[in-house]
Amino acid sequence: MNASFLLEYGSGNVSGTIMRDVLALGDGEMQFHGVAMGRVNMASTMLKRKIQTDGIFGLGFEALSSIANLNLFAPSTRNSNNSDRLSRFSVYIKELPGCKLSSQFLLGGVDESLVGGKTKVT
């Protein structure tokens, strides 16, 4: 795939190249084929100054995506062994840059120690 993207935010914009690869997790037993990833080639100065980040994990569903069919959880990217693990996932984003806990993405459940209040599984 040799396509480019441009994302515009209130604080700036980024542009880059879209590529596809195999994403393997857990010693390779869970594989996602044809996962689209973006390499940022340019980010506006305002965005670089305001946001410190290593990346964004794309969990957008097709209806919300500006790039059609690039969802990690789309049936075309996963094999049948992944279905149970993908039935639930949770995301924890660290509160402040100095926070000791790092951000986490968990497949298959929730880390209750990071939840403030009741959790609702949908």
TrEMBL record:
InterPro entries: PEPTIDASE_A1 (IPR033121), Peptidase_aspartic_dom_sf (IPR021109). Residues 1-122 form the Peptidase A1 domain. It comes from the Eukaryota. This is Peptidase A1 domain-containing protein.
